[in-house]
Design goal:
Number of strands: 7
Number of domains: 1
Number of helices: 8
CATH class: Alpha Beta
Radius of gyration: 17 Å
Structural class: alpha/beta
Strand content: 15-25%
Shape: globular
CATH architecture: 3-Layer(aba) Sandwich
Bound molecules: S-adenosylmethionine
Helix content: 40-55%
Largest sheet: 7 strands, mixed
Length: 236
């Protein structure tokens, strides 16, 4: 299979188009597990009151919101290049009364609109897989994070247990794209999802990538039997 096209214009257009159904499909297709994955991600950050956090590929803002609630006076900058996703995030931020804690900025992960050394932590949930030039995004993360700051990345994996792996592949490649297409009315977004997960490095390879790109103490934690991995690291 050819590698999925990750040109920023294509990816942004895809998320612009599916934004309205994104949250529903997220919760439905993961049977609500996505909330647990984000909660664990936030716990791993061990934020102190007043912490400053960058959430790259913030989308509709769920992780930014969970992070802002984690400790008093936390400030989060959520960055995403899809305006429709950010508009939904802005509505949720207002509804949850977190407008003073979360700033949403339209921008690219390869040029983070935050000054150097500003952040105590950074997060990316289900976003790095879509980034065309991950090395540039990591260069930017290393720039904006303070030395020793934590990085937490959530990304899909594939279960390792043989029976479960086969079942999961069937769900991910046959069921999920059909349901996604039906609900989102987008031809390819939910076929791109399994294709991009299939093309993503293995947990061992991705942990090594993180370690090569400015971070240390890298851990990869499988969650929900390996459907998702949480990568945790500290900036060198
Ligand atoms: C699968 S969604 C994840 C959203 C959110 N983090 C979540 O967990 O629900 C991926 C998001 O990453 C954004 N994105 C992908 N590549 C990006 C890039 N290079 N710069 C900024 N945003 C990007 C997309 O617009 C989309 O909103």
């Amino acid at each position: 299979m050819p590698p999925p096209d990750k040109s920023p214009a294509r990816i942004a257009a895809m998320f612009e188009a599916i934004a309205a159904r994104y949250d529903f499909l997220n919760h439905f297709l993961s049977a609500g597990l996505d909330r647990r994955w984000r909660a664990r991600t936030v716990r791993e950050l061990q934020l102190a009151p007043g912490a400053r956090v960058v959430d790259l590929c913030t989308g509709t803002g769920d992780l930014a919101i969970a992070t802002a609630r984690a400790a008093e006076r936390t400030r989060v900058v959520g960055v995403d290049f899809a305006g429709a996703m950010l508009r939904l995030a802005a509505g949720k931020v207002r509804q949850t009364g977190l407008a003073g804690a979360i700033a949403l900025v339209r921008g690219d992960a390869a040029a983070i609109p935050v000054r150097s050394g500003w952040a105590d932590a950074a997060t990316i949930a289900f976003g790095i897989r879509n980034v065309n030039q991950p090395e540039r995004a990591f260069g930017e993360l290393a720039r904006v994070l303070k030395p020793g700051a934590r990085l937490a990345i959530l990304e899909f994996g594939e279960p390792t247990a043989p029976g479960l792996r086969a079942l999961y592949k069937w769900y991910f490649r046959a069921v999920l794209p059909r349901v996604g297409r039906l609900v989102s009315k987008h031809e390819s977004a939910y076929s791109y999802l399994p294709a991009s997960v299939g093309a993503f490095p293995s947990p061992v390879e991705f942990a090594a990538f993180i370690a090569r790109n400015g971070f240390t103490d890298v851990r990869s934690v499988p969650m929900s039997l390996g459907i998702v991995y949480l990568y945790i690291a500290r900036k060198c």
